[in-house]
Design brief:
alpha/beta, 6-stranded mixed sheet, two-stranded antiparallel sheet, 6 helices, 33% strand, binds guanosine-5'-monophosphate
Length: 196
């Protein structure tokens, strides 16, 4: 995904050697043209799976997940982090550790929106240590649904998440993989399909 890589290199801010800030197109201000391309790319990669739902976690996963759901023409469910009063009491829930906030929190999905008939594609903005994806995969297991795969916009390849999810047998497709961040510079892995 040429456009994504270009935006990461031109607009990404290296907060420290572990954290990348992409507020100008993904995490605060959202670029809809980029999101549309992301949705189309995930559709191309997973179109042979019979996806019935896209699952993400609020907030930053929602934009790429929504455009992916649009391509598949399936509902997009986002796991809620807060104990919102208006959320059904009948929920699947699990605890995950936040890499950016360095704290544990609960994620919940109403039992109405994940069922044993579902074939689910997980979408998230970043993959760091894999905890958000593992938490979402636990919700899918609780529902008796099937996990078809995981689509990640930006994977930090120097952290453990990618290897961990592969070991767990998950199919992970990342649109950009960052090999290293150092002295304010971002090094993105070069892959054939990224030449597009
Ligand atoms: P993980 O659960 O894989 O450790 O971390 C993934 C989650 O943490 C993502 O949902 C994302 O919101 C956040 N995250 C992890 N690393 C970064 C980063 O470098 N930049 C930003 N903006 N978010 C990150």
């Amino acid at each position: 995904m040429y456009l994504l890589k270009k935006m990461i290199l031109e607009q990404g801010i290296v907060v420290n050697n572990d954290v990348l800030k992409v507020d100008s197109f993904l995490n605060h201000c959202i670029d809809p043209v980029l999101m549309q391309e992301i949705g189309k790319e995930f559709f191309q990669r997973f179109k042979n799976e019979k996806i019935t739902k896209v699952l993400t976690v609020e907030t930053s996963g929602i934009a790429p997940a929504l455009f992916t759901g649009l391509e598949f023409k399936v509902p997009v469910v986002f796991a809620k982090k807060s104990g919102a009063l208006n959320l059904d009491k009948d929920v699947f829930e699990t605890s995950i550790h936040s890499f950016t906030k360095q704290k544990d929190y609960m994620i919940k999905v109403s039992k109405k929106y994940l069922t044993s008939d579902d074939v689910v594609l997980i979408i998230d903005d970043f993959l760091a240590n894999g905890q958000a994806v593992i938490g979402m995969s636990e919700l899918i297991s609780m529902a008796g649904a099937k996990l078809a795969g995981v689509g990640i916009v930006i994977e930090k390849g120097f952290q453990d998440g990618g290897a961990l999810l592969h070991e767990m047998g998950m199919r992970v497709e990342s649109l950009a993989i960052i090999d290293k961040m150092s002295q304010g510079k971002i090094f993105i892995r070069n892959e054939e399909e990224n030449k597009k």
